[in-house]
Amino acid sequence: MDWLIILGAAFAAGALNAVAGGGSFLTLPALVFTGIPPVAANATGTVALFPGYVAGVWGFREDMQSPPSLSMREIVLLSLLGGAAGAVLLLVTSEATFSKVIPWLLLVATAVFAFGPQLRQWAGSSDGRAVSFWKSRLSMLAVAVYGGYFNGGLGILLLALFSLLGQSQLNAMNGMKNLVSALLTFIAVVIYALGNVVAWHQALVMMVAATIGGYLGARMARRVAAQWLRWGIVAVGLLMTALFFLK
């Protein structure tokens, strides 16, 4: 039964990430429910969803373009530094503390996902060229640290950030979002592995299920209205948040 839960969650998470995001709303609770400690569950779920980010980078390889406020080299460096810092922060967080933080992280991630369009609209109304040197770099670093620590809602935050930094082409924003996600997840996975917090049997099986789910999800996405998808994911996020608060 535990393996069925993990496989089902990974498959659904891969499908969600392919069409809208929010896959970590399923992988983290599923792993915790099956007995994986919270810190290890967070790390394992991140490892499981990593191939999807790499596939996304390849899919948008011709569209990637850095925003006016940051160079590609700076984005790569800040993504790696932030992802590493977030991963180290997770490793030094005790299981008891992370258990208390999980519902708040899920709540924030759900809120970010729910108000993603408004967040992007607000960010896009600003002129990215006017963002100061330090503000643009510190913002990029902060989002990368968040992604290395907890992956939920990362895609929406990155899209909003790139809008704020002056990027206006949606395909370019999506390409950069996938690139940053892949980079910070890669360095986080390396640190998680060195910290011995990854449940590798579960992670490897979930990788396969998430990859299959991602492919099928992308194929089926056109048949489901985007609005229903978004609010369905928000409902799942709120349900998982409530369950963790009650626990």
Keywords:
mainly alpha, 247 residues, 0% strand, single chain
Descriptive notes:
The chain is mostly helical and 247 residues long. The chain has one domain. It has 11 helices and no strands. It has helices spanning 2-19, 24-33, 38-59, 72-91, 95-114, 116-124, 133-149, 154-164, 170-194, 200-220, 226-246. The chain is globular and about 50 Å long. The two termini are 21 Å apart. This is Probable membrane transporter protein. Keywords: Cell membrane, Membrane, Transmembrane, Transmembrane helix, Transport. The chain crosses the membrane at residues 75-94, 101-119, 139-166, 178-194, 200-216, 228-246. It is found in: Cell membrane. Belongs to the 4-toluene sulfonate uptake permease (TSUP) (TC 2.A.102) family.
Number of helices: 11
Round the Cα radius of gyration to an integer and report it: 17 Å
Q: What structural class do you assign from the helix and strand content?
A: mainly alpha
Largest sheet: none
Strand share of the residues?
A: under 5%
Q: What is the N-to-C order of secondary-structure elements (H for helix, E for strand)?
A: HHHHHHHHHHH
- Could you name the ranges where pLDDT drops below 50 across 5 or more consecutive residues? none
Mean pLDDT: 83
- What fraction, in percent, of the residue positions are helical? over 70%
The coarse silhouette is globular
Oligomer: single chain
Count of β-strands: 0
State the end-to-end distance: 21 Å
Query: Domains counted in the coordinates: how many?
Result: 1
